[in-house]
Design brief:
single chain, alpha/beta, six-stranded mixed sheet, four-stranded mixed sheet, 35% helix
């Protein structure tokens, strides 16, 4: 069974006696770490770089964008436009090499083409000591995103095996493992034993740390996330209060908050707890905004909580 970590006060949750104190980054208080954020840039509907830049900047990080695509809006809007940036990325990064850019973490999310995996791997080779975080943004609720081809899903699955931190939902985990996706909700209502099996299978694929997110059982008011590490014996379950509506960009906020906590020197379990609380609170803030279900998650008033990680 997984060790369970739940507290009822989501506004002030702190991790005490962390059962898996996996520290991935030792923060020097005066040093500002640099993160290559390999994501798309979305004009309307907050997600991807529009989330990663402010969240990680609030955690005292220097965010260096590597845009994998340009979107007019997120893809739930009709008539969205996408520009694939694959052809410019090698020249883009070659220019970085000419000015001796140093990177402490490579954080990738949505990709526009299979060839972009090779671009990310070139960053891994150039910065072998950098933390490699892969948020395999390609599917949710049992459905693959419309721009993702089978070839791109396969490339993303191969990249997942290189991750120091891998943050899939259940649909993405099934794709990475080559297993059936499941019902229309992506198999979100699964028992602990199955969640643990999936998390360990992702470790067996090569990822060093896995955050399997978004398990929600029928009639339950808790969202469950499972943290598994190759360097720790136990899987830790972290629960957060369920908010009964869906908002675009919450996955990007969640992953960015996990990395923000890690880069602030917090343990991975503490980062997962913080990320769940932050997303919960941002969803509550969002509900006060007009057309909030379309415009995306409103996290801006809460960025002080990210800064407080330092």
């Amino acid at each position: 069974m997984a060790l369970r970590y739940e507290e009822t006060d989501t506004a002030s949750r702190q991790v005490h006696g962390d059962p898996n104190p996996v520290i991935l980054y030792q923060r020097d208080g005066k040093y500002i770490p640099r993160i290559a954020a390999v994501h798309d840039l979305c004009g309307y509907g907050k997600c991807s770089l529009g989330v990663a830049i402010p969240v990680l900047s609030a955690a005292g990080c220097d965010v260096c964008p590597v845009p994998t695509g340009l979107f007019s809006s997120h893809t739930a809007f009709p008539g969205w436009y996408m520009h694939d940036t694959t052809d410019i990325l090698r020249d883009y990064l070659n220019a970085w090499r000419g000015i001796d850019v140093q990177i402490d973490a490579v954080y990738s999310g949505f990709l526009g083409a299979p060839e972009q995996v090779d671009v990310i791997r070139s960053l891994y080779q150039e910065f072998p000591d950098a933390i490699k975080m892969v948020d395999p943004v390609m599917a949710d609720h049992g459905k693959v995103y419309p721009t993702y081809t089978p070839e791109l899903c396969e490339a993303m699955a191969s990249l997942a095996a290189d991750a120091d931190i891998l943050t899939p939902n259940l649909t993405e985990a099934a794709i990475i493992l080559g297993e059936p996706i499941g019902d229309e909700w992506g198999g979100a209502d699964i028992p602990d034993e199955e969640a643990e099996r999936i998390a360990r299978a992702l470790l067996d694929k090569g990822a060093k740390n896995v955050v399997l997110k978004g398990i929600q059982r029928e009639g339950d008011d808790i969202i469950r996330n499972f943290v598994a590490s190759a360097s720790a014996p136990d899987i830790v379950e972290v629960g957060n209060e369920y908010v009964p509506y869906m908002l675009h960009g919450t996955g990007d906020v969640y992953a960015s908050c996990v990395l923000a906590a890690v880069m602030a020197g917090r343990s991975l379990v503490e980062g997962v707890a913080f990320a769940g609380d932050f997303v919960h609170d941002a969803m509550i803030v969002s509900a006060d905004q007009p057309n909030f279900k379309d415009r995306g998650v409103s996290f801006e008033p809460l960025l002080g909580k990210v800064a407080a990680l330092l």
